[in-house]
Amino acid sequence: MMNKAKFFTIVMTLFIFATCIFTGKTYAEDIKARMQSRLPLMKELKAKGIVGENNKGYLEFVGNVRKEENVVNDENSDRREIYAAIAAQQGADAEVVGKRRAEQIAGKAASGEWLQDANGKWYKKSK
Fold this sequence. Notes:
It contains four helices and four strands, in the order ααββααββ. It has helices at 4-23, 27-47, 69-90, 94-108, and strands at residues 51-53, 59-61, 114-116, 122-124. α1 crosses α3, α2 packs across α3 and α3 (69-90) crosses α4.
């Protein structure tokens, strides 16, 4: 019997291939373009301390202000798709891919940005 994660990976892979065939443009290019267009706003939200990077590779609100929630949700949705595609390509679990990405993001984060450590504790990055 196939587990849910494996089934999801297969469905996502088929969807990506079908999208590529019908649009002539790769699905990854679409995601990359969307993420690039959101990047200035994501940087602004991080700089203002509204969102931070959690330990699973996703943006998360760190306070009571939920400004631009729909854009943050869109960003996380695109990240989820990317992690699933990478996991399918590498024969890994998407959650593991996200956690690895979280470590990379934390290493490149600007001073003052909110990050979540492996134990779930939030902290501001210092220089």
